[in-house]
Amino acid sequence: MEDAVLEVLERIKPMLKLHKGGVELVGVDGKTGVVSVRMLGTCVGCPLSELTLKGGIEAMLIENVPGVTEVVAVK
Fold it and tell me: Domain segments of the chain: what residues?
């Protein structure tokens, strides 16, 4: 599952880089399907980062990686 998550994140990163932001994988819990990521650059503290996290990153991961149930941001 982790490789599939990394593959999707690589497709997302160029969009975030357009706004000087980024995301990195912290971990994947294969039992619960929870993916932990760290937001980087201008995404840190951005008022829209929650929308990016849930409406963008989480939606793409759930759609493309079987077993993913949620994406959470960690510091």
Answer: 2-73
